[in-house]
Specification:
Elements lengths: L25 H21 L5 E7 L5 E6 L1 H8 L13 E3 L4 H4 L6 H4 L11 E6 L43 E6 L2 H6 L17 H10 L4 E5 L2 E6 L7 E6 L8 H14 L3 E4 L1 E3 L12 H11 L3 E5 L18 E6 L3 E2 L2 E4 L5 E4 L15 E5 L14 H4 L10 H4 L3 E6 L1 H4 L5 H10 L4 E6 L17 E4 L2 H14 E3 L5 E4 L2 E4 L6 E2 L5 E2 L24 E4 L3 E4 L15 E4 L2 H18 L5 H10 L12 E3 L6 E3 L2 H4 L6 H4 L4 E2 L4 H9 L6 H8 L18 E7 L1 E10 L5 E8 L4 E6 L2 E4 L4 E10 L7 E9 L4 E12 L2
Parallel strand pairs: 4-8, 4-9, 5-8, 9-11, 11-12, 12-25, 16-17, 17-18, 18-19, 24-28, 31-38
Antiparallel strand pairs: 1-2, 3-10, 6-7, 13-23, 14-15, 14-22, 16-22, 20-21, 26-27, 28-29, 30-32, 32-36, 33-35, 33-37, 34-36, 37-38
Main location: secreted
GO molecular function: serine-type endopeptidase activity
Protein name: Subtilisin-like protease SBT2.4
């Protein structure tokens, strides 16, 4: 809708970047009511009575509403005076015991900030997700250790409901709300799991919140095994919950309503480990309602951190597009859980699975090894499908006399490939028929499969590589005697399952995870590249322990557990959010873009072996040198981010200038999406003052500018150097400079094409300070023509 929302209404206060206002003041309330009234008038004057249901009025950072109606009725809204645009709602989806140590927090930033009992103190993080499990110890409040910082500026509330009594909010969980109008309009909800309260029936929201801000030192116990102690990145930060995703469905309407409310309440940072599944159909990526909501949250002084997506490793798969939000890619750590299948001939076949050994004591006693297809019920009446014959999905298909006390080999066959079979069913079958253990092996017909180490309540191991599976099957056949019809007359093979719960700390890390979405960033549904680096940063997102919800509505195999070991950019995002909270705690006056700059320019591009960070490819085990489109600026370095020396800042007006400089975007569309007329456009989109330089199509030459501010506290002299991307030369002016404390300095970057490549190549700008500050800025250039 036309007209300013509450946060930027001139009658309340002149716009100042990041300045807070009181949404509960009389002036704010009056303007909010006038907006709601205007929304109702538009609907009453445009749509037929009874043809619609208004779901939300957006008032604080957006002026608009969500309405459930028919497409034909929706078309009537488009031409009505005061209506700027209409966008179809879209589906949204969900995108530790060790990572604080891996990131160097306990002996680094936490120590500097007074230990884990102070890390993140005074910062409020908003989590737009699936809710929270309020009874989890990661979110408990201990009155013996009260919070020292006042958060009176924060105005959130606690909405009680099923499984979420008013006492669920404490000084740790300071706000809990839920948004369901979009979900309820889109489909029939399942009352048993789509709980209309902030309670988390999925587990995802609890996992994310605990990773960023869970209490320090919480014991992780799963299946009576102690895996260590879990801590959030900023364990003293406060948690504000905005549930907008349900087991049955998630809608953009609910997510946008949650972002608007979180901004109203006054959170410092928003964690978005959720988002639309695809870019907007009818507009450029930057101008969809989701990205515009993030832009206005940013305008209100809130740092927004967003999951890059889990659609890797192909190019242009990111689902985070805009320069005003930080997009996080996911990496591995050097912790692995090495499970194995042991054979009497001395072979140890590597596998995956968090379970006890088949002997229950860690020893390697061997048990009869049986292929499921060789243990079928004689004269069975079941369907002869892979689920019954070889996938161990149905206990009634197997002969109890054969499989009881044995290790049974199940095959990753058609049912798993088509996602109709499950590991949960194998565990149930193993428990029902009293297997000593099970092995799920790769099937050559379907190739290698991707396996995550899931806690198993029975002894089991997954062998995801075809080559390893063939070794097991060859040994089995050598030891098995069959009659002329192929039926087994003697099971001679023996095996043992090794304990898969003991962590090993070795190997190359971090490595960009296979699933992590990749750049280049793009502007439309044709995947046309644009002049913004995405993802922005790399953080741990592979096999992360954190809080869970025992209902586990979408993961039956994790039902009953209080912790889960998960992978995804959803898990990487709260790592960066927690680190941002630590930075914001130390530098409360910094704007969101200054915090983002500090995280980016201090990132490392090297792994724990001193080599360049690698990235996983499509094939299991394949590694390739990463580019900035895999890892962003590099792997997050919390200690260095606390003291970056220089930062780059961008304001709301700069983002508008960026949009207005893009030839692919109609200026009228920018006015419609943002409510702001194009004034002073940037000379080139790549001139936005980001801590990276990306040029999607460079013809002949281009000179860009970056402006730095000294936040190091002392004057410092910097020497500038550059590694040229292939096909270019790059010159920096000035080549060195001295900058006063709190002073600013412009750096001009002249890029010339020497060879047209029509593909991106990569370089690096390095600023080395006399007081040991080092800034690194990625260069991603596509030289298309020397003329």
């Amino acid at each position: 809708m036309e007209g300013e929302p509450v946060a930027f209404h001139g009658a309340i206060q002149p716009h100042q970047e990041g300045k807070r206002l009181d949404p509960n003041s009389e002036v704010s309330k009056a303007h909010a009511k006038s907006l709601v009234d205007s929304h109702d008038r538009v609907l009453q004057n445009t749509l037929e009575t009874g043809s619609y249901s208004k779901l939300y009025s957006f008032k604080y950072i957006l002026n608009g509403f969500a309405v459930h109606t028919t497409p034909s009725q929706a078309k009537k809204l488009k031409g009505f005076p005061g209506v700027k645009s209409v966008e179809t709602d879209r589906a949204t989806k969900m995108m530790t015991t060790y990572t604080p140590q891996f990131l160097g927090l306990p002996d680094g930033v936490w120590t500097q900030e007074g230990g884990d009992r102070n890390a993140g103190e005074g910062i409020v993080i908003g989590f737009v997700d699936t809710g929270i499990n309020p009874s989890h110890p990661s979110f408990a409040y201990d009155p013996r250790e009260p919070f020292s910082s006042n958060i009176s500026r924060f105005s959130g509330a606690c909405e009680a409901g099923p499984q979420f009594p008013p006492s669920s909010c404490n000084d740790k969980i300071v706000c809990a709300r839920f948004f369901s109008a979009g979900a309820q309009a889109a489909t029939q909800l399942n009352a048993s799991v789509d709980i209309l309260s902030p309670f988390d029936a999925v587990g995802h929201g609890s996992h994310v919140a605990a990773t960023a801000a869970g209490n320090a030192g919480v014991p992780v116990m799963v299946n009576d095994f102690f895996y260590g102690r879990a801590s959030g990145m900023a364990p003293r930060a406060r948690i504000a919950v905005y549930k907008a995703i349900y087991p049955t469905i998630g809608t953009l309407a609910d997510v946008v309503a949650a972002i608007d409310q979180a901004s109203t309440d006054g959170v410092d940072i928003i964690n978005l480990s959720v988002g639309p599944e695809e870019p907007p159909e009818d507009s450029v990526t930057f101008l969809g309602i989701f990205d515009i909501a993030m832009l206005f949250a940013r305008r209100a002084g809130i740092l927004v951190v967003q999951a890059a997506g889990n659609q890797g490793p192909g190019p242009s798969t990111v689902v985070a597009y805009s320069p005003w939000a930080v997009a996080v890619a996911a990496s591995t750590t050097d912790r692995i859980y090495p499970a194995s299948l042991l054979l009497p001939n001395g072979l140890s076949i590597p596998g995956v699975g968090l379970s006890a050994s088949s002997s229950g004591s860690g020893s390697s006693s061997f048990y009869k090894l049986v292929m499921a297809k060789d243990a079928l019920q004689p004269n069975g009446t079941f369907p002869w499908t892979p689920q019954y014959v070889e996938e161990c999905q149905y206990p009634e298909a197997l002969d109890p006399a054969v499989v009881r006390g044995s290790i049974v080999v199940c095959s990753f066959s058609a049912g798993f490939f088509n996602q109709t079979s499950s590991l949960t069913a194998i565990v149930d079958t193993a428990r029902t028929l009293e297997f000593m253990g099970f092995v799920l092996v790769a099937n050559p017909t379907y190739g290698n499969f991707i396996a995550q180490p899931i806690p198993l309540s029975v002894s089991g191991v997954l062998i995801p590589k075809v080559a390893d599976a063939k070794i097991v099957l060859q040994y089995y056949e050598q030891q098995t005697i069959r009659d002329g019809r192929g039926f087994v007359t003697y099971f001679g093979a023996r095996a043992a399952i090794g304990d898969g719960r003991i962590a090993s700390f070795s190997g190359q890390a971090p490595v960009v995870a296979r699933f992590s979405s990749r750049g280049p960033d793009f502007i439309d549904s044709n995947r046309s590249p644009t002049d913004v680096l995405k993802p922005d940063i790399l953080a741990p997102g592979h096999e992360i322990w954190a809080a869970w919800s025992p209902i586990s509505a979408l993961e039956p195999i994790l039902t009953g557990y209080d912790f889960a070991l998960l992978s995804g950019t959803s898990m990487a995002t709260p790592h960066v959010v927690g680190i941002a909270a630590l930075i914001k705690q130390k530098h409360p006056s910094w704007t969101p873009s200054m915090v983002a700059s500090a995280i980016s320019t201090t990132a490392t591009q090297y792994d724990n072996t001193g080599e360049m960070i690698m990235a996983e490819g499509l094939e299991i085990g394949s590694l390739f040198p990463s580019t900035y489109f895999d890892s962003g600026a590099g792997f997050v370095s919390p200690s260095r981010a606390m003291d970056p020396g220089l930062v780059l800042n961008s304001e709301f007006e700069d983002y508008i200038g960026f949009l207005c400089s893009m030839p692919e975007i109609d200026r009228a569309a920018i006015r419609v999406a943002t409510g702001v007329w194009c004034g002073q456009a940037l000379s080139h989109p790549a001139n936005l003052n980001l801590p990276s330089v990306t040029v999607s199509a460079l013809t002949r030459s281009l000179t860009l500018r970056r402006s730095f501010r000294n936040v190091g506290g002392k004057p410092e002299t910097y020497v500038c150097s550059v590694i040229w991307p292939n096909g270019t030369t790059v010159d920096l002016f000035p080549p060195s400079f001295t900058i006063a404390s709190d002073g600013t300095q412009d750096l001009y970057i002249e890029i010339n094409v020497t060879l047209a490549r029509n593909e991106f190549s990569f370089g690096l700008i390095v600023l080395t300070g006399s007081l040991n500050h080092i800034l690194r800025m990625p260069l991603s250039i596509n030289p298309v023509s020397i003329y």
